[in-house]
Each structure stands twice: as structure tokens, then as C-alpha cells.
Design a protein that fits this description.
- The chain is of the alpha+beta class.
- The protein folds into four domains: about 1-160; about 175-385, SGNH hydrolase (Rossmann fold, 3-Layer(aba) Sandwich), CATH 3.40.50.1110; about 395-580, Sandwich (Jelly Rolls); about 590-615.
- It is about 30% helix and about 25% strand.
- It contains 14 helices and 30 strands.
- Strands 17, 18, 19, 23, 24, 25, 26, 27, 28 and 30 form a ten-stranded antiparallel β-sheet that branches. Strands 2-3-8-5-6-9 form a six-stranded mixed β-sheet. It has a five-stranded parallel β-sheet with strand order 13-12-14-15-16, with helices on both faces.
- Strand 27 (about 515-520) and strand 28 (about 520-545) form a beta hairpin.
- The N and C termini lie far apart (about 120 Å).
């Protein structure tokens, strides 16, 4: 008796959140039946509250928001059997896509129909809409839904039937998705739920997603998105929490955020998972290039934290290569289409639950052949991954004799002197350098997060090579953008110094500045010091003077470490001089010293031999 009462209270509480009472019970098997008047058929939504757009043909009908005005309406798409397959709304009334308008049209299946309604004037329809969306987050678009809602048309009357929501069973696997539109767009978690159901697994999905959200915002306990995540994790126990970062995020911005989020997930008792987001571009080649950053970010996070990572980015590239006729992108070219959403969900199914998507019965109303191709690409991505090319040029230096030297500053610690930059391009986390300036990655554009920015007009970086090393050349880059308030690199003075003890530094000759390379408003110069003769040093200091912000991505020190590529004994024979302020040696110049040492050793040996001979006598 008590259980029934509690269940009834739960249902009443749920529907009261929609701001209206429950509809009356249906005599035809559904819990709720709605009958509403239609104010217009194939008409603009200027006058009235409920409008219907039928498709009597055997072909799909594409309805543009521009033609009928869907900006302030909710939308319900029904198939030829009157079952709800898609929902959403608030679509921008544009004749072409612009930023913020990911979808400008709605597709109605053959013999199906579209319902557009204004929530304020059709409260009963709005209740059904909210139930069908299952808590999904969505802006300015429609998405696939799987909640059973049936509709029928009779003249100027629309009839809707649906059941009340039922709580997930105790055996359901509970997922919380954390991210932005790359997660929630086109109802990807709902498709994941449907794929799981078709595979015999019950899952419950919830959202903590916001448009254009960064993981750094979820990590911040004072940010509204950080508060939302903490409230979610405190209010319910989850089995899995799926993390996805913004398109502009990089490992340097994602890692500090994940560092703060992981303890929250652990405290909840859930397992953290990663979703490697897809990339967007006009050409396949550029899609691959754009995906490399996501690959490096999520793959490194997965390795460092031992997390499962769904290779959705890889699946997108495989699909674009093998089946270019399948459009994976929405109207704006940046978000994902229904097909793209389905592909992502298939990678989740296989990665997170170990269930091969091949032959799965849920096809999201797509042709079975299309679904099969997407399942194939998802499987390939999970099992093999995509063989991404390395976009980083090999960081090495070749001297005038053709000898090649590697960057021995790679991965080495350094001490900055300038003020930390506060923003996405910072090189500082918790008061310490992140390590961007010695990670071996030179930026190809000043807006990339490989940049390690500092906000001091005078700034220096002291690299500790770990031991005295043989240094042949030193290089750094500088970026400028007047529109961003970052001075042109030509206005800087770059000074390079060396030290063996980290206290006493000697200045080297000035580095040479390269020709300018430009990318849009960004201007770049490299500063290179090629030493005519090598030096031995442990600490290298590079100072940037006369700037505003120091916008650099890397400092390379080319040479060899004694005991590895070149021994200390071998270094004695190297050509040396007093160039650059360091005393050096040349084998020929010190021949008298080697002769004297050899003579002394010989004389000592003779003396010892004579002494032993006399003792024997």
C-alpha cells in the first residue's frame, strides 16, 4: 500500500514540475490522452497556438523554419504510424545557417506529419513534449526521441496519447553526461539508451550539459556549471560519468579540469569515462588535421587516468573516408546530424559497455543499410583507432657538417619570471608552469592552446637541462596580434644566457630573427641562435624584452647530454674558443699538455721499474 502511495506521489511531483495537472486517463491503454484544436494547417505560426504540417507524399518533406516561423515554437515529428520520432524547437528563421543556428529546417518522413505549438498556449502538449524529451538538453534544434507518444489527426483536431514516466529499475546502469552540444545535440544519449535497450541492457541517462561549456567551468566550484555538476553528483549515485570538453580545449586546459573533477566522480562512486569529440571542416584532410588535437588531448587523458575513451572522432573520419555519401553534420556544418549522432552512440555502446553495435536493431528511423555502415565505422574506430598523422615537425637541428642534434629541452622543467596570463592560453596552473614551453609542440596559429602566454612586458624562462650538456643551438618562437593587444614580434628583444650553477649567467650573442610568417591577423617570428662553437651548460635562460604579452609556444635547446649521445671525454676534443664568452679547448692547442702528461707518466713508470729492480737485488 505504501509503495503504491509513494509511486503516485512521485508521479504527481514529476508532473507538477511542468506547471500543470495530470491529463485524464485514457480508455485505450495509455495513461494520458490529449485532444487539442488545430489552428492552422501548412500555415505560418503568427496567429494561433497549434499548427500541423502533413506529408502526404512517399518522399521526405523538408520544412524550413524561414517559411513558417518556428523560432518560438516546440516541434513534434510523427512517422507514418503516428509515433513520435523527433522533438525540439525554437529553430532560427534563417534562409542560411549562421553562428547559433545549427538547424534551419525539419524533415518529415513519408506519410508523417509535423506539429508546431506555442508552449504558453498549449500546456497539455507541452507536458507531453517534456515527458518525451526525457530531461534532454537541447537548444534551437530537434532531436531523435524514443519515448512512446502516439498521435492522430481528425479534421481540425489532434489527439495525443502517452504513458506516465516510470522510474528506472534498480538494475539499470546510470549514466551522467557532462559536456556541451557535442554531447547533447540530436539526442545522442537518447540514441545510446535505445541501442542499449535493443541489446538487452537497461540504462538511465541524465544530462549536465550546457552550450559551449568547458570542463574547466564544471571544475570550478563557484561557476554555475560547476555548481550544477556538484549538485548532480550529490543528489544521485551514478555508475558512469562521461566527460567531454569544448572544441577549443586542449590537453593543457582539460587536464587541470579533470584533476579537479575526478575526485568528485570518485566520491560519488562512479567510473569516469571520456568521449573523444569529432572535428568539423570542409575537407576530409582538414577534418583529420582538426581531429589530431582532440586525439592527443583525450588519448593522453585516457592514458594518464586509465580511463576508457570512446573514439567518436576516429569513427567520423572512417565514415567520411569510406562512406562520404552519409552526411554526419547538421545544417551549420559544425554540429552532428542524426547519422552523426547515431555513430557517436555506437562508439559509446562498444567502448563503455563492450557491446558490439553490429546488427543492433535500433536504427533511429534510418535505412538499415545506412545504420549498418555507421555501426561498421564505430566498430572499426573502437577496435583499431584511426592512424592519425603527426602534425609536429621533427624538432631537431642540423649543423654545418650535417650532424643532427635533438631538442634536449624536451620535457625539462623551467622557471618563469613574468606574471601568469589569466585565460585559455595560460602556461600556469596552481601557481606552477604547465609545461607548454618544453613539450615539443610549436603552434601553427597564435590562437592555439599550445601557446604558453605570460602577461609581463619583460619575461624570462630558465630551463634546467638536468645536467651539464653540450649545446649547439637555441630556438624560440613569438607571436603577435595587434587586434589582441599583443605586440608584433619585431618589437621584442630576445636575450639568451647560459649557466652551469643556475646562479651566475653569461649572455650569449643575440639570436637571429626569421622572416615573418602570417596566419590571418597573427604574425610569427622564430628567434634562432646557432653557436659557431658548442658550449657546455646546464641552464639556459631566454628573456623576452619590450613586449606587452609574451605569446610563445616553445623553447628548444639542441645538443647532446654527456654520457648519452656524446661523452665528456669526447667533448674535450671539440673545437673551442672564447666565442660567446666561454673558454673552450681545441685538441691541437693543448697538444703540449697531453705531451707533458704522457712524458710524466712514462718517467714515473721508468722510475718505478728501476726501484723494483734494485729491491730484487
Amino acid at each position: 500500500m505504501k509503495r503504491g502511495l509513494y509511486a503516485m506521489l512521485a508521479i504527481v511531483t514529476l508532473f507538477s514540475s511542468f506547471g500543470a495537472v495530470l491529463p485524464s486517463a485514457s480508455a485505450e491503454g495509455y495513461d494520458n490522452t490529449i485532444n487539442v484544436n488545430i489552428d492552422g494547417i501548412d500555415a505560418k505560426t503568427d496567429n494561433g497556438n497549434v499548427f500541423v504540417y502533413p506529408n502526404d507524399s512517399d518522399e521526405k518533406r523538408v520544412i524550413k523554419a524561414f517559411d513558417y516561423g518556428f523560432r518560438y515554437t516546440k516541434l513534434l515529428v510523427f512517422d507514418n504510424e503516428g509515433m513520435l520520432i523527433e522533438a525540439g524547437g525554437d529553430i532560427y528563421e534563417n534562409s542560411a545557417t549562421v553562428t547559433g543556428a545549427p538547424q534551419i529546417s525539419v524533415t518529415v518522413p513519408p506519410k508523417g506529419f509535423l506539429v508546431a505549438f506555442k508552449p504558453s498556449g498549449a500546456s497539455e502538449l507541452n507536458r507531453a513534449f517534456n515527458v518525451a524529451m526525457e530531461g534532454a538538453m537541447l537548444y534551437n534544434a530537434t532531436m531523435s526521441v524514443i519515448y512512446p507518444v502516439k498521435a492522430s489527426l481528425n479534421g481540425n483536431s489532434l489527439k495525443l496519447e502517452y504513458d506516465n514516466p516510470k522510474p528506472a529499475s534498480s538494475s539499470a546502469k546510470k549514466f551522467l553526461f557532462v559536456g556541451n552540444s557535442t554531447t547533447y545535440f540530436n539526442g545522442t544519449p537518447i540514441k545510446f539508451k535505445a541501442l542499449c535497450k535493443a541489446a538487452g541492457i537497461e540504462v538511465d541517462v541524465e544530462y549536465c550539459t550546457f552550450g559551449s561549456a568547458y570542463l574547466s567551468e564544471f571544475a570550478d566550484e563557484t561557476h554555475e556549471r560547476g555548481v550544477a555538476l556538484r549538485n548532480k553528483l550529490k543528489s544521485k549515485k551514478y555508475d558512469y560519468v562521461v566527460l567531454q570538453d569544448a572544441a577549443a580545449a586542449s590537453y593543457y586546459t582539460s587536464k587541470p579540469a579533470v584533476d579537479k573533477i575526478m575526485p568528485l566522480i570518485k566520491e560519488n562512486g562512479a567510473e569516469a569515462l571520456l568521449y573523444k569529440r569529432y572535428s568539423a571542416a570542409d575537407t576530409l584532410e582538414q577534418k583529420i588535421i582538426n581531429a589530431v588535437k582532440h586525439h592527443e588531448n583525450y588519448s593522453t587523458l585516457a592514458k594518464n587516468y586509465s580511463l576508457k575513451c570512446a573514439n567518436a572522432a576516429d569513427a567520423f573520419i572512417y565514415s567520411c573516408e569510406k562512406y562520404p555519401e552519409i552526411n554526419l553534420y547538421a545544417d551549420d556544418g559544425g554540429h552532428h546530424s542524426k547519422e552523426g549522432s547515431y555513430l557517436i552512440a555506437c562508439t559509446w555502446l562498444y567502448t563503455y559497455l563492450g557491446i558490439d553495435p553490429s546488427g543492433n536493431g535500433y536504427t533511429a528511423q534510418m535505412e538499415e543499410s545506412v545504420a549498418a555502415k555507421l555501426q561498421e565505422c564505430a566498430k572499426l574506430a573502437v577496435e583499431s583507432g584511426y592512424p592519425y598523422p603527426s602534425l609536429d615537425a621533427k624538432d631537431e637541428y642540423k649543423d654545418k657538417n650535417g650532424k643532427v642534434y635533438q631538442n634536449i629541452a624536451f620535457g625539462k622543467p623551467y622557471t618563469p619570471s613574468g606574471n601568469a596570463y589569466n585565460g585559455d592560453w595560460t602556461d600556469t596552473a596552481d601557481g606552477k608552469p604547465i609545461g607548454k614551453l618544453t613539450d615539443g609542440k610549436y603552434a601553427t596559429n597564435g590562437s592555439e592552446h599550445a601557446i604558453g602566454a605570460y602577461s609581463s612586458p619583460t619575461h624570462s624562462v630558465t630551463i634546467d637541462l638536468g645536467e651539464i650538456s653540450n649545446v649547439r643551438a637555441i630556438k624560440t618562437d613569438l607571436w603577435g596580434n595587434e587586434g589582441w593587444g599583443i605586440k608584433d614580434p619585431t618589437t621584442f628583444t630576445v636575450k639568451i644566457e647560459m649557466s652551469n650553477d643556475g646562479v651566475n649567467f653569461t649572455e650569449l650573442e643575440a639570436p637571429k630573427m626569421s622572416e615573418e610568417t602570417a596566419d590571418g591577423d597573427w604574425k610569427k617570428r622564430d628567434f634562432m641562435l646557432e653557436l659557431g662553437s658548442p658550449i657546455n651548460a646546464r641552464y639556459i635562460r631566454v628573456s623576452y624584452l619590450n613586449g606587452t604579452f609574451v605569446w610563445s609556444s616553445e623553447i628548444s635547446v639542441y645538443g647532446s647530454v654527456f654520457g648519452k649521445d656524446e661523452s665528456l671525454e669526447e667533448s674535450i676534443t671539440e673545437e673551442t674558443s672564447t666565442e660567446n664568452g666561454f673558454e673552450t679547448t681545441k685538441n691541437e692547442k693543448n697538444a703540449w699538455l697531453y705531451w707533458a702528461i704522457g712524458a710524466a707518466v712514462t718517467a714515473l713508470a721508468v722510475g718505478v721499474a728501476v726501484f723494483i729492480s734494485k729491491k730484487k737485488k
